[in-house]
User: What shape does this take?
Amino acid sequence: MRKSPLFSVLLGVVAWLAFCAVSPAQNINSTVAPNINGSDNSVDIQNNSSGDWYFFSSPTPAGAQMSRVSGLSEFVWPSTGNFAPDSSEEVNRIYQGEYLRVYPESLAAGTVITIPFSYTPSGTRYDFLVTVTSGAQVTAINAIDANPTSAATVHWAVSFSSAISGVTAANFAFNNPDSITGLAITSVTANTAQPATNWTVTANTGTGTGILGLNWAGHVSESPSVPNSFVGQYYNFSQYPIISQYPASVGINVNSTATLSVVASLRGGGTPNYQWYSGTSVNPSAAVAISGATSSSYTPPTFTSLGSYQYFVRVYTTVAFYTDSSTAVITVVDPPQIQTKATSTTIASNNTATFSVTATGTSLTYQWYNGASGDTSNPAGGNSATFTSPPLSANSSFWVQVANPGPTVASSGTYTATVITTLQPPQTSYGVAVNSALSSALSVTAKDSAGNLISDLPITFTIGSSGGASGTFAGNVTQSTVDTGSKAGANAPAFTANSVAGVYDVVANYSTLSSDLTVTNYPVINTASATFATGLSNSFTITQTGLTSPVFSPTGKLPTAVTINPQGVLSGTPPLGTGGVYPLGITARTGTLPSVTIDFTLTIVEKSNLVNHPSFETNGLAWALNGGPTIVNNVFQPTDGRAGEDRSVWLEYPLYVGAFKASFIYQDVDQNGADGAAFVLQNSANGTAALGINGGGLGYCGIDTSIGLLMNLYSGALGGASGIMIGTNGVGAYTGAGVASGRSYQSTSPVNLDGGNPILVTLLYSNQILTVTFSDTISGSVYNTQIPVDISAFLGTNAAYVGFTGSEGGVYSSQTISDFSYTPLPTVGATAGANNTVILSWPGSVDGFVLQSNTNLDGTNWVTVPASINQTNNLNQAVLSPSSAPSFYRLTLTP
Assistant: This one.
């Protein structure tokens, strides 16, 4: 179909811009774009000669088509009586100022369309030679901004059939039928780096009102050329204020108010004027202007009466130019309140259930829902205070929401319809773990021979026993009678199995009728996981409840050097390198009694994972505990408020102590207690079983080959009041024999160790100086001191067991140590080796560090050195070959 007359005229405007005037008595050359993606391209050639053009035949090739365009009309060749091949008539000619329009139709790029013509009816024949020229085409010109608009700047999105470059403002022209003045294209930008298929044209819209379009003027400087013309979308510039957001109707509760707002703008900018009215914009002459309500929003006085109140706003520049908003209604209501609630009910299958509420408020509406109160996903019907459900085949829940035009809604609770279906015994056998309650009740239902429901039938449940396996109902009874009532079914009270595994019957009977319900008490394996550490002797006992002398058997692959015996004891010393997660199946059984199988996970943790960044490992993995304490959630309790407690805990892997940083949080939970705790490094003959004397000995005194930071709580202690002391070789305020040593504690003021606040303790040992910092995490007080001490001299080596001790005597305390961390700080030494090599060495007791190198000491590109690490003479050593560039080396802990 050819384009409409209006569109043809607009295209003609573009053709005037795109093609020069035609001189007489010659062939006329032009170009036209091929049709791509459903386009209907054409070219308009204006007769600017001194005479008329006469036509005698169709274009060649025959696939092309031509038209005569005159004013708003287009006449396709041949059109009888308008534009036809008849030299004796005027209908075949194109007059001065008119256009020849040529359509390429389906002709390919490169085709030359030839159209014979002459300047007189019998004059010399010439040709229009129109070449179908390939290249990018304008496929769309779309307005980007909102319409209508008052904006001073607007944008069009211009799309081409393929990427082009060099598009400028000269390629475009405005279609401006309403003579808006001051128009200018301010920028033409590609949406991506050129060449691009999408461009944005930005225009200054000048002044005035009306419509404004953007045209494609064509091939001025773009590459490749764009030969076709195009008309895009229009903007409408209004001379009236433009309202972009109308005041919204709202419902409110009585004794409140609401604010009405409007958003409006003016062409060319500026601030519009506002006048709010009480009334409707449908009949503004009857409305009443509200005094003082002259802004974009209006808040009426508080409404004390129920009803509906109408308002609108007039937005204007002058009296003649105004725009009225739509009418906003403020509906004032009493909020809904539910006064009487519905009650749950019981029905038979495929019957309806009826629920009813009473509520107060204005203009109430009711919506009932299926589901729990608050769930609005399943509307069930309503708009009545009484609701009758459809026939139900399963237990269902309902609730109602009561609303009105105001902002408040009232929601009921959940009402349940219990539906009794065809009555059948739900099951004849039950299984339950020992010492556990059945998840479903022991129950029976009753019906007569015709299948009719039986009501009010007393059912007696009696629990039997076999081999000690049994159970009880609530109240610790073994017999209970339950009336079926109107449900024609009886559920026994809650049932709990005893601690013996086995199979027995619960008998439900009425008169001589009985039904046996088989119950199986299954044994329980009490844990499903354990964690071992490599290089240490580990043991874990799997326990169960329900069986006497069970035999445990595993399935799955056990780690190297780990076994499980028939008594359920997992034990062994997994070697280094066997860390990982080992899934097992563990079964416990005794003869023909019910057995139990669980999925059991044994986790082996590598030594390197435990010593790289030592901590309490949540529940004390690889820590040896003495005196009865535990580590739970990274907390160790030296004392917990009971007389004579004496405890210690040691990481079972010796750590490097030649230089280190350690921290932990210490707290005297009960305040003003006794006696205290100590951070200890030791190589005692007792190893990880080391434990000193209690009371004033703090669990430290008596541990030989050791050094400790002693923290005393007791104000009456020998050696001074609350404070700290360095203990050496098991001597603090007391010797290991309990004799006063004469040593004194040093005050930690302003930090009070027995004040009850958590104290962050930070220890830094380097160059035989121990820096001690106590920080009260509540008050912010800080104590700091430096203590000269040669730790390696006291320990005889640079590796030792690291841990804590603590005790109390006649005065009790509850102490905790948490969030422990420890980082060795080794140094690297360098010596010359054979064949121009360098030997880097560091203490052999250091584990988990990686040797890295970098050619720039300040750089960040540290890489792991690929050299082998060997231990020689208690040193870790790496032999490095010479390098042409300087290299720097460091030790770093793996994550």
